[in-house]
Design a protein that fits this description.
The complex is a heterodimer of chains A (about 325) and B (about 150). With about 325 residues, chain A is an alpha+beta fold. Chain A has 13 helices and 10 strands. Chain A has one domain (about 25-315). Chain A is about 35% helix and about 25% strand. In chain A, the strands form 2 sheets. Chain A has a 7-stranded antiparallel sheet with strand order 1-8-9-10-6-7-2. Chain A has a 3-stranded antiparallel sheet with strand order 3-4-5, covered by helices on one side.
Chain lengths: ~325, ~150
Amino acid sequence: MQQTDDLETFPYPFKGEVYRYSNNSAPLDFPSSIEITPSYINEMNLKRGLLNQHPERCYQSLSHTLRGQWEILEMIMGHLTSHYPDQFSLDKQNDEWTFHNKILQEKQYFIFGDETTLPCEPLDFIGRHVQEDLIFMMQRDGDLFLDAGQLCFPANWSLAFDLGMSFREIHHPIPGFKEEGLDERILQFLLQLEAGNPWWRKNWSLMAGNRLDTSLETFDVWGKGRKGVTLNNAGEFVHLRVEVQKLFRLPRSGGILFTIHTHLISLEKLASKAEWAEQFYHILCELPDNIVDYKGLSLFKNQVIEYLKGRLESRGVL
Amino acid sequence: MQKALFVSGKRKYLFCADQNGMEILQPVIDLAVAEKAPYEIYSEAQPLIEWLKKQKMGCYLYVAAEWAKLDSLKNLTEEVGFSEEEAQYIGYGERWVKVFCCRCHGITEVILQEKQEIACSECDLLLEVSNHYSRLKNAYLGYVAKL
């Protein structure tokens, strides 16, 4: 399924001509955990298909998360109905709630706090109405733990494996993350996150292909695409993948909701904007080997650089 | 072979090991002696749990044993109240570990070696054993070894 964004709305992630891992979070001015884009219906179909076919891969939760899950459902329903009132509505009669998704023409009656009145757990339910992946981190003993999540479009990681891990344990595979003290700095930042003051950041990678469901579980299938990138096909085949990540403190449970909205744009479309092509070209040329390896670019970085160089030379920029 | 690291400045050092384990701990014991710090070596004359329970706050514990016995020793010391910051565990010999298959989530038990590739016992995918560890699953993540 083709899943690409428009040039005008694409969350282009770069500043400057050098990229390093950092805590590049910023306060979220428009305090919504979710965003509805024109590919909503396509992505809902894709998400629900994955959840039905691969439930263990796409949804995991520990039993003590249920109260926090209801808090997440309430927050997201609040954001959907206040920011998209024509598409979503919520009728509350004390604890008896009716949620109406007008885009998908679905109505769900349930009793708030009673899981038996929903077709699945609250986090799993609300995740089936938004394009974002939803990760619930619970806080205890001065640390954060990934205790529940709905993850259909991961950037090559496994929710099933990472369930229950602390923040540092999750990020253990990232090169330099511990050595440079980034894990501790970002953890301290997250521990101090306040309710009502959400933050956001963008993360990026390059993808050989245009799949949103780049799970670790299917890497043996989609990872092969990295070997098939050539100078001739790079423009259409390779995509810049950007995750818009948002962080919300949940006041009742004390946990953190981490939402991830994944966007894809083909290199060809990206390069049609000259300043983006030039900036991305310089970033890729300068990128250290350990980041190239971790982001999975080793097999096709040179082809991408050559492609961008060609586009820039044809415009007389290089 | 794992080595014990000396953490200086502790109130008292505790050493618990079998005969082979004592050889591993000897360099650290020598350092504690050189620092003129109080120390105590566990002897089997009394149950380990009793020996651990009578120790005071601020002690630092070293445990060295075969890998197969190390987990149960660690559970025991944690039950008594030694945190991860107050103890070091050093294993020797063959170490059986569980490997979590990135594709099918199947678990394969293997003797741990450096830079190891194994076949998943459930889906047969060739896996590269990583050092990414899940405490919940007590397993290491196995990545796709060959694309």
